[in-house]
Please model this.
Amino acid sequence: MSDPYRRTISRREALLRLSAALAAGGAISAGSIFFHDRRRISPTARTVPDWRTNEAHLPPGAVAHGDDPAANVRRAIRAMGGMERFVRRGETVLIKPNAGWDRRPEQAADTNPEVIAELVRLCRHAGARRVIVADISCNDPIRSFEDSGIGPAARAAGAIVAAGSAIRLVRARTGGPMAGLDIMGQLLDADRVINVPVVKQHSLSLATLGMKNWFGVLGQGRARLHQNIHHAIAELAATFRPTLTVVDATRILMANGPQGGSLADVKQVHAVAAGIDPVACDAWGAALLGLDPRRVGFITAAEGRGLGRADPRLLKDLGTG
Amino acid sequence: MSWVRRIRILYQAVFLILFVWLLERLIRGDLHNLPYAIFHQTDPLSMIALSFAAGVIPGAMIWGLVLILMTLVFGRVFCGWICPLGTLQQLSAWLLAPRSRRESLRVNRYRRWYATKYIILVVLLVLALAGSLQTGLLDPLSVLARGIGAAVWPALPGGRPMPGGWLAAGFLFGILLASRWIPRLFCRAFCPLGALLGFFARFSLLRIHRDATSCTNCQLCTVACQGADEPLGEHRISECMVCLNCTVSCPEQAIGYNFLPPAPPRPATPDLSRRWLIGSAISALVAAPIIEATGGGRASARAELIRPPGALPEPQFLERCVKCSLCQQACPTGAIQPAIFQAGVEGFWTPVIVPRRGWCEYTCTRCGEVCPTQAITRLTPARKTGTDGQPPVRIGTAFIDRGRCLPWGMETPCIVCEEMCPTDPKAIWLEPVTVRRQDGKTVHLQRPHVDPARCVGCGICENRCPAGAHAAICVSSVGESRDPLNNLLLPRIPPAARKEPLT
Model:
């Protein structure tokens, strides 16, 4: 390397420079071939898991009446075989209330907070590692969770509340009317899912119950599902298969749903149903609203797709406790 | 003139003519399937930036590898022998400013600020890594295609006016004019493709070598140097465009273009300090999320942002479009225009359909055929129109403005939109009505309605609407196939919805 303007270079330097060029060419070629035509146009879509447990020999559902919502929950779950049957030690449970609206509990627009809190306690007692209470509210999520009482009650019972910016949205492999909609990531990550709707009238679908409660796990753009709502709800029910459906009928909203507001529209029913047949649970809720479940489009559509049976009598009545 | 120089000029002329000829054929609507995108497909800057931004090198873009491998062997021969923008600059430097030897010696010296191109390259590549592909703004092939397509061609007899083209014209002619003062100023100081090739040229096997024993320091080599890489002093291999002017101008034959010659020591002044490199990379990293969040291109679908048929969803589209403007030249009706404001800051000069300028021809798939990066995917006419059984490719939906529409607002017969509608059955249907006008006469009218399930958003209705400057039927991007959320109607539920056993 003494004289830069000498005529030739040493064999060693020639080899070094040749291999440097070769390495550069090899690296860029390998990189190009690696990236060539890789089909990564959209991020990988998650699949929606099936959260049901082995349900052989279980009744489709059970209904408990009584003044204490928490006691109703306990009795209904016990009749289903106890929470231990559904939640195993170390699992993550997601509880999906209807916390869609900035309303107080007595207005019956959201799931009763005592029902949610009792479910959280039962899951914790069954050994769940984490219990997450999550919903994508229609109103401001912070106000919805606080004013409905669901947020404070769930936290006090030992749950993690996920609302608003705490909700992760992920792309999932869904079809039909849900194509392109994001889904709550916490839901897809959960080991078990308990769907806890409140019984409400709805001007388009006639009733807001368990299967319609899945609207609350969808991201932006879900409003367009209203175009063919009965079919869309049946599609939701076929996509999301919960471990348990717990229908809160402590107070139900008979008119001006699903948002309500007037206490004149609220009827005190003091009942809670728990079940593994989401269609039967919804049929029971529809009957409370004075509807014939056979005339509610999404219930018959879901039954037609084999997702359950549209018969409220399938739920075992435990009477007043 | 030596034979080496003659051969080089021949190469440059052939590639320049090929580039302009292909563009001219494309604009004229030559129905032959010529390799219109060949220059853009062999562009290693696009190739590498695409793999950074989109994680993919689509289709023929892999040919960029050929240029890189060529550079590893020969140095930046692309710049000196192929690049049509380089050739044009060289031409304008020669035409605009005949120089004395003394002047040439002065303008062909290396200047430290020529390292600006490396900063530009780093900024563009970091932006690409952050998901914003902006290499096309300064890529010489895109610059030239835009300048010719959007500015030169519209000005020629028979050319179609293209609003905004003056920006491309200003850029192109500014670059050419700059060569009056410093030859190949854009190549030397600003070209990100040249910078990228300059990086690979550091490894090149064949390179300029000066034999110091026979050199008399006459400086004739520097007088003729295209790249300002100082063959006389400490030769800068990454700046050298391999024009070989130095070898043929040396009276002593002291300069040769040899295989693995002894390398002179690296120049004393660094091309680019590490501080500058890291600083520009960090600035780009900071700028990228700000541009993405506030540039107005990504937040949500916009009514006037109608992308060509087959375009990818907007974020993926922005990761791939290199703004080469080939789709704009390919469009037979002039519907595809450069987006000046419609697509946000990131989407500047990306293609957008302006139905008042032209409509999307029903069975035409030319824009996707010429798109080098497949930001607009390739369609067949059957796929585009939906005759293959799948839903057709929609780019938007037409809406009727009843206040402007002749039969709706003025009780005057007109059926132009319905007549033009290409779908089968037509997406515009006519409702026959009989109305009494102000003067008491009754008129029979046919009032148009849009069936959103059939409308593909081609825009021929808007283009032909006789309602003056502001059409009475306008296409909005809603309903576009590429964005499932920007839709009025639900996708149809497959008839064979799965039936599950009772549990």
Summary: Residues 3-259 of chain B form one domain.
